[in-house]
Amino acid sequence: MNFLEQIANNPGLTEALPKEFAATLQMISISGFFTVLIGLPLGVFLIASAPGGLRPMPVTHRILSDVVVNITRSVPFAILMVSLIPLARLITGTSIGPVAASVSLSIGSIPFFARIVETSLRDVATGKIDAALVMGSTRMQVIRKVLLPEALPGLIAGFTSTLVALVGYSAMAGIIGGGGLGRLAYNYGLQRFDTTVMVVIIVIIVAIVQLIQLAGDRAMARVDHRNAATAGAGRRRRRAPVPEVSA
Amino acid sequence: MITVTELRKSYRQGGRTIDALDGVSLEVPRGTIHGVIGHSGAGKSTLVRCLTLLDRPTSGSVSIDGRDLTSIKDSEVRSARRRIGMVFQHANLLDSRTAAGNVALPLELVRLSKSEKDAKVARLLGLVGLAEFADAYPSQLSGGQRQRVGIARALAADPTVLLCDEPTSALDPATTDEILDLIRDLADTLGLTVLIITHEMNVVKRICDSVSLLEKGRVVEQGPLREVAGSLNGRLVQALLPLPPHNPSGTGPVLDLLTAGGSGSGPVLSELSRRFSLDVTLLAGSVETLAGEQFSRMRVGLAPAAEDNAPAEPLELNEVVSHLRARGVTVEVAA
User: Fold this and answer.
1) Contacts of A141 in chain B (CB under 8 A)
2) Whose CA is closest to B206, among B33, B30, B26?
3) Residues A222, A225, A226, A232, CA torsion sign
């Protein structure tokens, strides 16, 4: 009873929470959108340009894979965020707020997702690609009709992991200036020792992650026909191996 | 018709050049089935990859229905490939598509209306006996059914040539025979020219009209099945008409006999026994129907028959051999 009253009367929750909750969702959806928009083609390009790929381009592949993707991924996210503030200002006109934070969130997670795409596509058996080529497919048709549909369950599982990672990143982004639940938890929960706010926010973040994972698993089961038992109905759930998240 | 002339393919591997194909030539007349048999590492897979232009040969030429594939431009490769249907060892179906979806894939690459496409997919699935499995996913099908879908898919673009790369190597013996009979039927009804790559002699025995034995990138023996099975000196005859392990006979001479189809038919052995007063012992043998003809290969031991009171006459081996040859039997003196 006491706890519920505290929640109802806490201005950190009644006034700030809805706004910051919306900001968090905004950051996740904007950066999630651009992660797929850019990360998916990048991952496809990484696999196609690899030696022995559909269209080998060794030098371009080297540069993209070793330099761009690996360097971006190895810079700690907090530092990447701060160093990308000028870029965010250039693109969005501001350096604070969820929209500005989405710039660095996207840039942080695009290489991560591109690697997941690359790994999923590499798992598609080469025999299937050969079969499509022998039929007279163009490279683009091989990508559209074979590689992407065959890798779809893995891609969905990978996107789910990326979104979950983005929830974590967005909390960090909040502290640097992005706003959202992360900042709320930091300002109220940590700096004002307001445990109620902290607990409620943690519960909300856990719920968001659970929802994302649940939706991801559902979507994956729907498109996964690799297992005879689940091929038709797509009801039973199968958990995908979740790749490790680097912060 | 498939014509392969002096095909060579070399790879560079760690500074060394490896000749995967070292001058392979073969010809498959229209409507016939040719088997290429060899152990792993003989160059079979390289041959297939060169025939489909997944790999470009180093030299030599491949032509299909008189059109040289090796000289065409990269941009024309795709349309040339549509004339070739290909069946893979593991079918290589897309798990994300149903049986019908898999068969439809080659049809999606060319302009075709939806109703035309659906009708064709249904007809193809009917052709391979899977009409009622149109909506099943590959994971719900058995290995043999998957291979049938693979065959239907290979036929979707109305190819004149069917290449089969180890089409039955992943299947059990009964399913193997079903798939082979299906390929034979399709070749006969559709007038397809078929090239089958395999390491199983059973495939050659069951459906091939002619055969090439590939070894270390070279063809070491080649010809119509009845020719290679009809020669006692060839490499393939031991595989086509194997002699089981047997004990050597006593003291008398041993002959290898081979009869093919019409030649040497009739009671060869009992005639031999009566005419030359011989005891004929069958040491080993095998009888097979190859390319529709009956072949038998026998190893027999001969000894003069000791009759009741007369001493055995000395054996005139030369006369025996020439008698058998005159009867149309291929003869070799084994011991």
Assistant:
1) 109
2) B33
3) positive
pLDDT of residue A246: 46
Interface membership of B137 toward A (CB under 8 Å): yes
CA dihedral B198, B201, B206, B212 (to 10 degrees): 60
Q: Does A15 touch chain B if contact means CB atoms closer than 8 Å?
A: no
Distances (CA, A) of B58 to A122, B3, B8, B55, B251: 28, 17, 5, 9, 55
Alpha-carbon distances, residue B205 vs B40, B115, B172, B228, B235 (angstroms): 19, 41, 17, 12, 15
CA A221 to chain centre: 19
Q: Residue A237 above 80 pLDDT?
A: no
Contacts of A156 in chain B (CB under 8 A): none
Residue B327 Cα, gap to closest chain A Cα (Å): 51
Closest residue, chain B, to A148 (C-alpha): B96
Mean pLDDT score, A26-32: 93
Give the residue from B139, B153, B161, B162 with the most A CB atoms within 10 Å of its CB, the best one to mutate. B139
Residue B302 has pLDDT above 50, yes or no: yes
B50 φ, ψ (degrees, to nearest 5): -75, -35
Interface test with A, best of B48, B92, B145 (most A CBs within 10 A): B92
pLDDT at B311: 58
B139·A231 Cβ contact <8 A: yes
CA-CA distance, B224 to B222, in Å (whole number)?
Answer: 7
CA distance linking residue B57 with residue B49, whole number of Å: 9
Distance from CA of A108 to the nearest CA of B (A): 31
Q: Is the pLDDT of residue B89 over 60?
A: yes
Write the residue in B54, B96, B157 that is nearest to A150 by C-beta. B96
List b or e across B48-80, with b for residues whose CB sees 16 or more CB atoms inside 10 angstroms: bbbbbbbbebeebebbbeeeebbeeeeeebbeb
Does the distance separating the beta carbons of B96 and A137 come in below 8 Å? no
Q: Which two structure tokens, joined as six digits, stand for A90? A: 């250039």
Q: What is the tens place of the pLDDT at every residue in A78-97?
A: 888 888 888 888 988 888 88
pLDDT of residue A203: 92
* Angstrom distance (rounded) from CA B177 to CA B171: 9
> ipTM of the predicted structure?
0.81
Note the pLDDT tens digit of each residue in A168-210.
888 888 887 778 888 888 888 788 888 888 888 899 999 999 9
- Say which residues have a Cβ less than 8 Å from residue B274's Cβ, sequence separation at least 6: none
Residue of B nearest to A223 (CA): B96
Residues linked to residue B194 through DSSP beta bridges, in sequence order: B33, B162
pLDDT cut 70: percent of chain A above it = 91
Q: Is the per-residue pLDDT at A243 higher than 80?
A: no
Gap from B286 CA to chain A (nearest CA, Å): 39
